[in-house]
Design a protein that fits this description.
The protein is elongated. It contains seven helices and no strands. It has helices spanning 7-18, 23-32, 48-61, 80-86, 88-91, 100-103, 116-137. It is mainly α.
Length: 138
Amino acid sequence: MKGEVRAFEFEDLYSASVASPDPAVQKIVKALWGCHCDTRNHPVSVAAEGWETMRRIIAFLSTDLDISSASGTPWPFRDEGDWRRNEPLVLEVELPPYDQAIHCRPIHPWWDRIPTSIGLLIVVGSILAMVVGMIACF
């Protein structure tokens, strides 16, 4: 949660955790699978809402509670009361404060979002502009 784990390292950690005999750990690692793209080695990122879920997971893993089967805001806790009673456990981990620039980086850079045909037109247009500029200088 410091912005240092990359996708492929996350996959290795995920693979090791999925075999855990603890059903809570199995449910948590399955829920975390969506935090990365398995085709690009990018820093693992989450939005602010995901950060809060991560905080709850950290606190939950420090308890001996059974994991809730319900989804929603207090998950993996059963209810908001369980979460609030155990929230101080997160402070023991010394997490950095959430920073969108570090913790919510786009997985794909902006240039990956340009359709191929448009990207080709941009490249061809740039080359033509340079050629025309060079011809105009002579």
